[in-house]
Amino acid sequence: MFSETIKHYGLYYQVVGSAVLVFAQRGEDLLELLLDIDKEMLKGFRYLLKDVDDNTKIDAFYLIREVPNTVNLEELADRLIHTVISDVFYEVNILFHPIIDLKTGKVFAYEALCRPPIKITDLLSIGKSTSAYTEDFCRTKAIKSASEKLKGNTKLFINFHPRFLTDPFKVFGDFISTALSYNLQPSRVVIELTEYEELRLSVVRNFISFLKEEGVKVALDDVGSGYSGLFYLSELKPDYIKIDMELIRDIHKNNFKKVIVNHLIQMAHTENIRVVCEGIEKKEELEWLRHAGVDYAQGFLFAKPSPEPNSSLVEKIAKILIET
């Protein structure tokens, strides 16, 4: 399996004693290799990342001398990321996915999605020291792109993952400063918290309060996917909730899903929380959700994520879907 993966990327390897040396002409090729191979299988090894010329003799004696310079898997990934990071991030695309106001049929907001040329989630699961940088880069590029492309008072939904919030107040403070530097008012921003269950309740409550004081709105993602989501909804009082798309899929055919979503809508509206349903792909789903009182809708039924938001086209499609 290992040798087949090596050959798949056009790389070369050589066994020297008990070590396996992999040769790559480009750092990107080695990164892709790390992403494809089972990380658990690789964690027990030490790695040597070093430029060598054609005259360097690589043998057991060479490896023994270089042992102090070896690194573990996480450090190797981080070094490789830094080696190719400028090229990787130059090619990052920011896509915008519209969120429709079901009362007016107008585009209420766009969710910004970061799409790098490599599998960023897998990449971040290996290297941690560049994780925060990656997340920050994507947010900054999303803010810059939104400031240029989103018109009027259209809001921007932007994701935050708790694994990057070791210092939430600094992270969010820097984020707000960045938004202002691009003339994007905090009142147009909605912070979408994903997997917020990983953080202590008191921490989440404090930085939500901080964000609201700065004029930023807050959304909880994937509400309804489990008990913890309902608990956090009751404790945190966000401005918006996004109902888990698994509850939305074929909801018009499933009475149990209807009961759950109806209760979520009622609970949210009782606390003056607006409801967004994402993952809508069928007109029948939209019709049921609209009559149930959902405030906003998002999904491929209206449009796929695009680097160039086209509100007028999306609103034409929304009008047809809502009025027919």
Automatic annotation (TrEMBL):
InterPro entries: Cyclic-di-GMP_PDE-like, EAL_dom, EAL_sf. SUPFAM superfamilies: EAL domain-like. One of its GO terms (molecular function) is cyclic-guanylate-specific phosphodiesterase activity. Residues 74-319 form the EAL domain. The lineage of its organism: Bacteria, Pseudomonadati, Aquificota, Aquificia, Aquificales. It comes from Hydrogenobacter hydrogenophilus. This is EAL domain, c-di-GMP-specific phosphodiesterase class I (Or its enzymatically inactive variant).
